[in-house]
Design a protein that fits this description.
13 strands, 10 helices, flat, three-stranded antiparallel sheet, Rossmann fold, single chain, alpha/beta
């Protein structure tokens, strides 16, 4: 497979043969955009080279277990058997992507979207303060309160007064609406480098993170090439690059339309791309230029970045390229929006995006 390395086939003695093969198979399934047959063919080739199976458990046994456990389904058409991933497999793919990224982060300290506003929030901190009228009794620090009562009144005349009460300081958890933009232009697979697979794995991981840990947040995913359109989370494993140019303007316009409908006060756009904008739409016609940065395309793109700034929608750009003229464009784009930019390798993309998602919280007290 061009541009991708499978670096670790070491066996964990605690894993069953099925579990070891399943992890590899899920990676292959993402690379093949959900083509089960192709993924199984690759798995068979890898088995020949790395001896993943033995006489007790073979690839055919693995396929039967995938069917029995509900990870794939079998269809028979025109005397030909085909396999399709199930919704259970789609969930498993998202969870593995999430686990892989958190492994990269070395299990760094987790936390919800804390803001800098203190008061009657819903996230405890280690800080204490005296009780104030209106504080919730659930937030009382029992040990510190009893210690104060003992010091202030002694054991013989023990009593508890309002002045003894200590309260855990709290922070509000912000609710965030995020649009993740993924570039699916042809350059995402140019020069023998697979850039789309890491991008969609990061998107799957971020989706699973929000679904399971931040259920009040919203995540919309859009892809952009010549045009832009929304996709569902379940479609992510099957995402493929097309013969497209890069219409960043269309992606931003769609993202802004989506975020205008969200009621959360905190909104953001995250954009994964590897190149310059090369296309805009004028009426029903496309205006395209793949050679350098076209002034018309550049001005439209920068104008939209500025428009997002005016309505308090920051844009974080994850650029999977370091060409000087591209860096210059991203710097202009970021300045126009007052956003942020990361120049990431494919391996570090997930780490950059996750850390930024967790740290880039803007909230307002309602």
């Amino acid at each position: 497979m061009i541009g991708w390395k499978f670096s670790d086939f070491s066996e964990n003695e605690s894993d069953l043969p099925f579990d070891r093969l399943l992890k590899i198979f899920k990676d292959l399934l993402v690379h093949t955009s959900g083509d089960v047959g192709e993924a199984l063919s690759w798995l068979t080739e890898l088995d020949k080279h790395y001896k993943l199976t033995d006489n007790q458990y073979g690839i055919a046994d693995f396929i039967n277990d995938l069917l029995d456990k509900g990870y794939i389904s079998q269809q028979n058409r025109s005397n030909k058997t085909t396999y399709q991933p199930t919704s259970k497999m789609e969930i498993a793919l998202r969870r593995q992507a999430l686990d892989d990224i958190f492994d990269q982060l070395k299990k760094s300290k987790s936390g919800n979207h804390n803001t800098k506003i203190t008061g009657q929030g819903d996230e405890f901190t280690s800080e204490l303060r005296p009780f104030e009228f209106g504080d919730k009794l659930d937030n009382i620090a029992i040990s510190e309160t009893l210690k104060n009562a003992q010091i202030n009144h002694g054991l013989d005349g023990f009593k508890l007064t309002e002045q003894d009460l200590q309260i855990y300081e709290t922070y509000y958890k912000s609710q965030t609406s995020t649009v993740l933009m993924i570039d699916i232009s042809h350059s995402m697979i140019l020069y023998g480098e697979d850039r789309i697979t890491p991008a969609k794995k990061v998107a799957m991981a971020l989706s699973e993170l929000i679904i399971t840990r931040y259920p009040k947040d919203t995540l919309d995913i859009i892809v952009f090439g010549d045009d832009a359109w929304s996709i569902e989370i379940k479609d992510l494993p099957y995402l493929q690059v097309g013969p497209y140019h890069t219409n960043t303007v269309a992606g931003l316009e769609l993202a802004m339309d989506i975020l205008r409908k969200r009621k959360n006060p905190n909104k953001q756009i995250m954009m994964i791309t590897d190149g310059k904008p090369t296309c805009i739409k004028k009426g029903k016609q496309y205006y395209k230029n793949s050679f350098g940065l076209d002034r018309k395309i550049l001005n439209r793109t920068l104008a939209l970045a500025a428009s997002c700034r005016k309505i308090n929608i920051p844009i974080t750009t994850f650029m999977i390229a370091t060409d000087p003229y591209l860096v210059n464009f991203v710097d202009q784009f970021t300045k126009a929006n007052n956003g942020k930019a990361f120049y990431s390798s494919l391996e570090g993309l997930g780490e950059f995006l996750f850390l930024d998602y967790k740290q880039n919280k803007r909230s307002k007290r309602n």
